[in-house]
Specification:
2 domains, 8 strands, alpha/beta, 8-stranded mixed sheet
């Protein structure tokens, strides 16, 4: 039987609306039998999700989605099969959490100054995890009745150039994030590449960072885009990942968001084999922390 594989999902540990346990349960309900949890800049949901996956008989992949910088642009890098107890990664994510918190404090102050009354404590109450972000501000605005949906909150207050937008100026480079994930035994994949500046930049990022895969199959990619990213992966001799990027059931443009991807068993087997190789290298090599000046 074909596997239904999803290597890109989010829980309440970052900006999803389902707990790690609920992510597993909902994915199983959609027919998924291989699942990764890839919360933004945190590994805190992995133990809970892994335990539930084992209970429900689902093959589980510990993962993370790292927010990176490419010049002035933002790039998201998936790390799959990472060691959730990795000391260096967890130290990095604690620092990221502190900086995210400072950004949200500034966002609340900026909104309040513009006549939109909201307190940091109201935003923090929207998250049960370690990673705070703009979606939690949006949820607080919905809770207060300022807007009806997350989308409206971003359109009116939180999107680029809006009154509540505060630039997040500190991010790790793609190459540095890839190095740390590889040292933690993980396989790296450029997430949702359709949002990069173009296919040329995708090739450049892969060469510069040593990323091992590209997320050809994503819920925002149509068939033609998926095929194009497959061809690029083949040209560069790298692997392919796929995932729903699930945050909540309701899609931005309407309709229901389901778990799963077009990733095949053979494509997944290649990723798992690469991860085994990375784990061997990680066991045998010394660990190095993030470089200064990132």
């Amino acid at each position: 039987m074909p596997a239904l594989i999803d290597l890109h999902t989010h829980s309440t540990e970052s900006d999803g609306v389902l707990s790690p346990t609920e992510v597993v349960t909902e994915a199983v309900g959609d027919g998924v039998d291989v699942l990764a949890l890839t919360d933004h800049d945190t590994l805190t949901g992995i133990p809970e999700a892994s335990e539930e996956a084992a209970r429900q008989g689902v093959e589980f992949v510990p993962g993370v989605e790292v927010s990176c910088a490419d010049g002035d642009d933002s790039v998201h890098l998936l790390g799959l099969f990472v060691d959730p107890g990795d000391r260096v990664l967890n130290k990095l994510f604690r620092e990221v959490a502190e900086r995210r918190r400072a950004r949200i404090v500034a966002t609340c102050e900026q909104l309040a100054g513009a006549g939109v009354p909201i307190r940091f404590e109201e935003v923090a109450a929207m998250s049960s995890g370690a990673s705070l972000g703009r979606p939690h501000v949006a949820d607080a605005l919905v809770e207060k009745g300022v807007v009806r949906t997350r989308k409206e909150a971003f359109d009116r207050y939180l999107g680029d150039d809006c009154v509540g937008y505060v630039r997040y100026s500190w991010k790790i480079s793609v190459a540095e994030a890839a190095r740390l994930i590889h040292q933690a035994g993980g396989v790296t994949s450029i997430a949702h590449p359709k949002y990069l500046r173009g296919a040329g930049r995708l090739r450049g990022l892969i060469r510069e960072s040593g990323a091992m895969a590209v997320e050809a199959y994503h819920s925002d990619h149509d068939g033609a885009e998926g095929a194009r990213f497959e061809r690029i992966a083949t040209e560069l001799g790298i692997l392919i990942t796929g995932g729903s990027d699930f945050h909540l059931r309701r899609k931005k443009g309407g309709g229901s968001h389901r778990f799963g991807s077009r990733l095949s068993r053979s494509q997944y087997a290649a990723l798992r084999e690469a991860a085994a190789g990375q784990a061997r290298i990680a066991r045998n090599g010394p660990r190095k922390g993030p470089r200064k000046g990132r």
